[in-house]
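CORE FACILITY INTAKE
Project code: CF-77B
Contact: R.S. (postdoc)
Sample description: multi-component assembly, two entities in total
Requested service: structural model of the whole complex
Turnaround: standard
Below are the sequence entries exactly as provided by the requester. Do not edit them.
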Amino acid sequence: MATIATTQIPQKRIGLVEHRDRAKRFFLLPAVVWVLAFSIFPLLYALYNSLFSFRFGRINEFVGLQNFGRLLTDANLHSGLRTTLIFVASTIVVQMILGFGLALLLNQEMRGRNVLRAIMILPLFATPVAIGYLGITIFYEQNGPLNVLLRALGIEPVPWLSNPFWALVAVILVDIWQWTPFVFLVSLAALQALPIDLYEAAEVDGASRFASFRYITLPLMTPTLFLILLLRLVEAFKVFDIPTSLTLGGPGRATEVYSLFTYRTAMRFFDHGYAAAQGFLLLVIVSVIVTLLFRRIGRLYDVES
Amino acid sequence: MLRKLSPTAQVLTVGLLIVAVAWVILPFYWAFLNSVKKPADTFANTFIPFLQFQPTLEHWVGELAIPETRQALLNSTMIAIGAATISILIGTPAAYALARFRFHRPSNRFLTTWFLSQRILPPVLFVVPFFLIMRELRLLDSILALVLLNATFTLPFSVIILSQMFRELPRELEEAAYVDGATTFQAFSRVALPLVLPGLVAAWIICMAFSWNEFLFALSLTTKTAIPMPVIIAGAEHTRGVQFWYVGVRTLLTLLPPTILALLAQRYIVRGLTFGAVKG
């Protein structure tokens, strides 16, 4: 009996693997077709559109690379790019420091951790437009809560939304509010997954708390921190919702981020070809930064098998 | 951390904790406060309903009586459910395929990266092509257009999150089903799928929250009948003057649904937002 069983099962398995080989494509097909239809095709269509000039929303004439040439000399676009870069750099630096710092502090046994986690989730999925909209009242200059608080502390009220510098600060603050919990939650999850015996061994060897942090925590957390940085970078470059609802890109162009400028080029001035070219420039900028920083993204996801 | 903190450090930690929690909670509370204050009480520094001021529901009732608001809430709901459902329906089989079958040319690694890389594409790049395509299809200002687009942009979430979950299932269960004569589809639908059901529901919820919050395409592609909540509120106060009470109501009406959804899926949030790279 035993010999029969061992000879039968492998045979059956060989047959099944081939059967699976035929079936596997059908599992993947809908998603691949969907992405080709709704992502790759529009991408190519945008590329096609970028070669034309538009008039009244209709294709007017073939202009070759002229729309891409305009990218080089458009001062408003450059100002949008500069604003976006300032936004990306400052939000990410502050979020990483605050989020990781807080996670380090709270990485210990404590009651109410689940409540804390739930509270930290609240901003993450709060509609960004709604938060920006609420910000109009929070940063309200006459008797808004923030200025009332500042006055109580003996600080001059700040012209939050009417001053170009402070308006950008307000946009940045809202984004920091929304995304610091993300850095915190991910860091904390990763910290708690670190092997505890390494810390025990270090303690036995008389390592200081700082030494444990420097030689155990930091090296082990580096991949996670890079992952967080990557995810934040990619998302931060897309910024649109908060400045659009909080400041409408103003005052002047002070908070007109790249995507808002491109949106206006497309939907207010119906300069579709040029807007498409702008979109590609943003894609190139993000891709270059991401590739330079992360050559091994795939390794963060164990997709070996 | 193993070592006990010194008392000073503990006090410091608790203090920071309180600051962090207050920093997160206060904007929500501010929105709530304004939504139940009479306009005359807006600038009075009162913070506790009933004790310091008499709360009112008139702004909630007033806002919910506006036909445009009710339509927008309905539109947002349909867009969120429709997009998330499509995303899960086509994402789950793909996730299973990436977790269980070996592909060559393109390899599993390439396919995973390909799905993931969709998130790098700036949405604003798609404003022009989607506008032109939807105009050709006569789908401008339609719920369907936003369902299709949000399904597309949430697809990487469902594919990657669920393929991580399928990968964590022991293969032996499906092997046993095969030995009993199950087809590939049966092994998937009867054995693997029920086991990842909690994760699948979480992924569905996360996709719903993202679709509800989406703003750029909603703004570009809707003009009247298909307008969802985020478009209703964007920029309204800049033209009408700031009415704190309505800002509070509309803010909460817009952000409470996705926030509550996220709390329901909280065990999977970290995993979801990192595409499964960090398990929360």
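Facility notes:
- Chain A touches chain B through 104 residues (CB under 8 Å).
- The first strand of chain A starts at residue 52 and ends at 55.
Invoice: internal transfer
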